[in-house]
Amino acid sequence: MRVLLDTNILIDFFTKRNGFGEPAKAIMFRLKGKKKKADGYISAHTVMDLCYYLRKVPRDKISRIV
User: Fold this and answer.
1) How far is it between the farthest Cα atoms of the chain?
2) How many domains does the chain have?
3) Strand, helix or coil at 37?
4) How far apart are alpha carbons 30 and 24 in whole angstroms?
5) Do the domain assignments include residue 65?
């Protein structure tokens, strides 16, 4: 199965936003885990949106990719 990830899911994952961080984390680990259920894709403009948004977030608030 192929999954197109929305920009908001990625922002929630990287910033651990209250109420949305854990569901986003569950989605990301489902894509990355040992029992990989789906392939995750993002659109080209999502990369630019993430760069724009995440550079405004303090570095200590951004989670590291595991």
Assistant:
1) 35
2) 1
3) coil
4) 10
5) no
Whose tokens are 């993002």? That residue is 42
Q: Is 23 within the bounds of a domain? A: yes
Total residue length of the chain: 66
In which domain, by residue range, is 25 found? 2-59
> What confidence category does residue 66 fall into, taking pLDDT thresholds of 50, 70 and 90?
very low
* pLDDT tens profile 3-58: 899 999 998 988 888 899 899 988 888 887 667 778 889 999 999 998 888 888 77
* Alpha-carbon distances, residue 5 vs 10, 30, 35, 42, 52 (angstroms): 7, 12, 19, 5, 17
- Beta-carbon count within 10 A of 13 CB: 23
* 2 strand-pairing partners: 39
For residue 10, being part of any structural domain is answered with: yes
